[in-house]
Structure prediction request, 329 residues.
Amino acid sequence: MTANTQVLLASSPEGMPSPDNFTIHHAAMPVAGAGQVLCETLYLSLDPYMRSQIAGRHISGSVQPGDLMRGEVVSRVVSSDVEDFKPGDLVRCFAGWQAYSVQAPEALQKLPDSNDPSLYLSTLGMPGLTAYAGLIWQAQPKAGDVVVIPAATGGVGSVAGQLAKIYGCRVIGIAGGKDKCEKAVNELGYDACIDRKNEDVAEQLDRLCPDGVNIYFDLVGGELLNTVSKRLAIGARVVLCGIMSDLNNSDRACGPYPAVWIQARATVYGLVVYDFDSRRNEFIEACLPYIEAGTLKPSVDTYQGLATAPDAFCKLMRGENNGKVIIKA
Prediction:
């Protein structure tokens, strides 16, 4: 009988995780019971929020040593006695880091056939929905707005940056390293990108945004949030979406002094993507034409095989990814 490859958390990391914090386990093949669906994982999404789950401080719950790592996947139905799901159907669910899973039908979302099902974990998945909800539904960009996006080539940032350009904004990225900055400008269409590793971010923001920042889509928190908040234009919108700079730290960075937001008459949004899940189809219908037209390009790092997930996740946590990280199982 085929074994079910799983990735478990072996130990809780102190600071930056390493592949040694994970272990590969070969479990018995799961069997679907009455009213259940057996699914085979095709693609697994790796996301920064998983670091918070490991630390026991994420809204979705915690992962303890010995537990299966959690995560969203695109799967294909293997067997089912549920009328709505037939063998061969593509589905999206939270099956975790494993090759096979048994799911209740209410935990599955059926997907249309696609030449690239991984899109439903990247540009048309949770990262894309996050970008769309934060930028379009919350910040409501207008043509001519100056939009600043850190982690500019990552899963969320790459979509947000391209959407801002589609809406006629001037878009400034911030990324770690020359290669990422070149990708942001040459492939994703950013007007400019600041290399946070080799340039003075404050000086470059003053040069590139002399009249201030209208929208800041924050994905990292920390000192960068302070730096940009001091340069907001009147009526700015700040979307607080991620804390990448703090995920591997036990201590939390201090936020901006409230006066910088008050002075700018800024509107500050806290973004939790789960609040917008009911509007997922609306988002897909809006963005699919952009993808088909080539104005919204997927930015993806793909790894082969579940055994590569620990190393790929650690690279993501070190900021070494160059797009949305996906495991092709």
Q: What stands out?
A: The mean pLDDT is 93.
